[in-house]
Amino acid sequence: MDPELINDCVHCGFCLPTCPTYVLWGEEMDSPRGRIHLMKQHVEGTPVTPEMAGHFDACLGCMACVTACPSGVRYDRLIEQTRAEVERRHVRDPQERAVRGIVFGLFPYPRRLRLLRPGMWLAERMAPFLARVHPSLGAMAALAPRVEHRQRMPRVVRARGERRAVVGMLTGCVQGEFFPQVNAATARVLSLEGCDVVIPRGQGCCGALSVHSGRDDQARRLARRTVRTFEQAGVDTVVVNAAGCGSSMKEYGELLGREPGFRVVDLSEYLAELGPVAKRHPLPLTVAYHDACHLAHAQGVRAQPRELLSGIPELVVREIPESAICCGSAGTYNIFQPQAARDLGDRKAASVATTGAELLVSANPGCTMQIAAAMRRAGSDIRVAHTAEVLDASLRGVSLGERSERPDKHGSVLTGPTEEGQ
Questions:
Q1: CATH code of domain 3-89
Q2: Would 3-89 and 285-396 be classified into the same CATH topology?
Q3: Positions of the chain with pLDDT lower than 70, given as ranges
Q4: Which site among 123, 168, 188, 191 is 20 to 30 Å from 57 CA-CA?
Q5: pTM as predicted
Q6: Domain coordinates of the chain in residue numbers?
Q7: To 5 degrees, how large is the angle CA 191–CA 403–CA 382?
């Protein structure tokens, strides 16, 4: 923990109404300035007690406080340093160690995640039983999405029409295995907007889940592999469609001690920068746009997704009340802190319901699973889609969710010319 960063906090309290756990519980030690006070105590010699670790674990790392802070406190950096210190110093009970071992031995590895897919339809039914074994296991099962069939991504998707750019695309772990249709839609949208899309083999987790949980060694190993993969692919821009991944990859310089040989941009950020050329067809829908914390607060990307959605004819965008309050996903938070996450998810679902929207648009797989589960509990029939899926439907002139082409022999549903090799 950096004492200079800790001393930047003047304890003004502007962070309090933006902090999800303070909003839930009203406890000072579960606010950013309260946690910074605990960090200072530890730097000055107080050991990491179970109570102290509990307050740090209860933080979602949503970065709403960073947006609200008038003093520019780097709470994002502080909480990452603190979580690494907690993992080094704090001895967790055997059950908690076992659950964390399952999560971090599974989620960062796409091939292992793939083994779960055949039984995903059963997960929600098993959630009550698993919750009796351990609350985190029940939460994991309840969050399980209804996965579409696997879609194989080619190594290169060629631009439709005149080529305007060449970009790399991160397929990710959770996004790639649980939301393959989002990756397919992302590649199609980039192709239709004139990009050659390079999708190198050997991708996996970018390290975001690990770095946000204080597992520095695993995070660095996964980050190095990601950097090596895209540097070898020879691209100078990597487009990311998962907010948490984009946030972490933009901080690779701090994590690895050197900047990668490419820049990282969120999909909406890149499309707004590139400017539209492909024709938008009407989508007569009312949508509510959800600000993923690691997109809005960590990356400062707010206007671009709204601009892209507003450019679709007949589509109406509505704002969600309390949009700055986290939905409770926060990477692995909804697994390790299931009750707090459930409370925040239900709060977000209630806010979404007030918009009267037919569709919720999200830019992060964790948020999608979290809010979809909360809306199922509330009996809501509002669908959830990624920004890329909405744009894809408009560009192709099809209904949202409609697949206008059959998969090829590799399972790909990408339009336009593709290449299996580079």
A1: 1.10.1060.10
A2: no
A3: 148-150, 401-422
A4: 123
A5: 0.89
A6: 3-89, 94-143, 156-275+406-419, 285-396
A7: 105
